Amino acid sequence: MRQFLLIKLLFILCITAVGQTVKPPKLSLEANQAQKGEIIRTGVKSYLNSQNVASHTIQTTKVLNKLINYDFIKIGETFYDLQTNASVGRRIHLLDNGAVSAVWTTSPNNSSGWPERGTGYNYSMDRINWQSPVDTRIESVVRTGWPSIGKLADGSEFVMAHSSNDGGFVLAKNTGQGTTFTDGNGSRVLDDVTTSDERVPIWNRTASSGNNIYTISNYWASEDAGVPVVTINGISSPTTYSKSSDGGSTWDIQHVLLPGYDNTKYDNGGGDTYAIDAKDSIVAICIGGVGNEVAVWKSTNYGQNFTRIIADSFAYTPFDGNQYMPFDEQTAEGRVPTNDGSVDVLIDNDGKIHAFWGLSYVADNDTTEDGYSFWPGTSQLRHWKEGIDSSRLAGGSIDMDANDQLDITNETFASLDATGNLPTDASFAARYGNTSIVSQPSASVDANGTIYVTYSSAIETDISLFNANFRDVLVSYSTDGGLTWNGPQNVTQMRQKEATFGCVAKKADDFLHMIFQVDDIPGTNLQNNGNTGLHPNEKVEIYYAAIPTSEITTNAIGQHTLGSEQLKRASEIFVVNQNTPNPFAYQTDVTIYLSEASDISLKVFDLAGKQVMTNDLGFMNKGNHVITIDASQLNSGIYFYTLVSEGYQVTKKMNVVR
Question: How far, in Å, are 87, 144, 336 from residue 241 at the CA level?
Answer without folding.
Answer: 17, 20, 29
